[in-house]
């Protein structure tokens, strides 16, 4: 296990119970084995128990990947603890491997002494050969460094469901619940929530619900009675890790969806989503479609261009407008984003980044759309860019994106990624009065007086503080005005080809973005370090965990994390100048590093990774330490 036992005692039935401070579990099997469901349920019960947690789902892009193959392996990793944690963990303490492919693709990640639970029914000669095993790893000694628990999961599950009128194939589908029951016994997880969930999930098929519950209970009873599982483990609730409040487990996409709904209510605007399904952003469309009671309208368009076109039309009509996508969709939406810049209308462009280029790695994570968000449009078309740092932070990032959009009348990029979107952590549910007031007034009447004394409405007459133009809802008497992509005359909004006017409008749109009010950078530097580790987006957890390790080892390292990437915080240049070495970890080839070098002439050191997975804390700590030795 990952930590020394705090307590070791005998359970009433004679089995030993050890108390640990944290555990990392990984469920792995075919994409049809229900590993994501088992992981989700274990996570939900862990959250209800009060542990801090972080998750990392990992699955193929195919709906049903080839069974028994290495590319077809689906996994779900959960790190839970009795204290504050930041990442899903570097190396699993426990691996549940449903077949040889799951074992082979994950065994190299395991530390010495880790526990492996395998479904021995799946370790047939054909299955072993399919993934390149010459012999049976359960018998050839290659796993001697681990605690291996061979369990005939399939046979036990089918046997437990004999009384149900199910075919063998149908019964086998419940083996993920048997495994979940076994792990729930091993780690003293609550059971009531999972049983209630299964009844709800299969409410229209109660016999399937009862079969899954029976398999779940059989797994629990197996762990309780079999001698091979002589020890179970307790991880106490993280009582001191969280401020007081009501918490729930939440994924990044769900938090972002709730943030958008909250933003619409605090802005007193209807929420409109124009979208086209794309991994890993589709869950936002699915979730928002459930909330018509909050005035949410969702439109699943025929393509990416239609989705953002509808959203921009909704913005013109007075809605809080959103379009969701990933990198390939941003490419298709780029012309309409430029139109939104020209029209100066509020529009949230939510990019859940994934591995690229082109179709790339649809279910893997990456941070490689930053330069696309900054510059991926024709002409000078500046767009504010913000990025959440954790799954729960997606809620606050959505509120901040909405604030900027409606206050400054501009499209705003919100850059999340697959790691945040699918991962989860505890989230404190805020009170309504804690949320910002996002209301802005619509134009109601004339705003300009001509030389002859007549009062008129000028659609491009700007607020002197924000440089935002009026937001006039169509149909308001006297506020009729022209829109379109051709350059407008300052003030009047008439079509203009005048060179001086175009120069003025380009510079004004840039000044509007540059003048957005963003907070100064929060720098964590308790010891006056010479080196700063600066990140953005989902690298927050691995960077913070790595910095903690380095400080524990006696290294003096400062840390800061950017939420606002355009404009940068006003004090960023001054912060960078304070340090002899600035290290920037990114899941790309150095895009933020490029921007910092160009803007501040700072010789930053980029630490990059583009393997479709988030940084590991230990790996990143070693990379930072090596960069520090280069001084």
TrEMBL record:
UniProt keywords, alphabetically: Oxidoreductase
Gene3D superfamilies per the UniProt record, alphabetical: 3.40.50.920, 3.40.50.970, Pyruvate-ferredoxin oxidoreductase, PFOR, domain III
Entry keyword Oxidoreductase: yes
Residues in Pyruvate/ketoisovalerate oxidoreductase catalytic domain copies: 32-219
Pfam families noted in UniProt: PFOR_II, POR, POR_N
Domain Pyruvate:ferredoxin oxidoreductase core: 529-600
SUPFAM superfamilies referenced in this protein's UniProt entry, alphabetically: Pyruvate-ferredoxin oxidoreductase, PFOR, domain III, Thiamin diphosphate-binding fold (THDP-binding), TK C-terminal domain-like
Keyword Oxidoreductase: yes
Protein name per Swiss-Prot or TrEMBL: 2-oxoacid:acceptor oxidoreductase subunit alpha
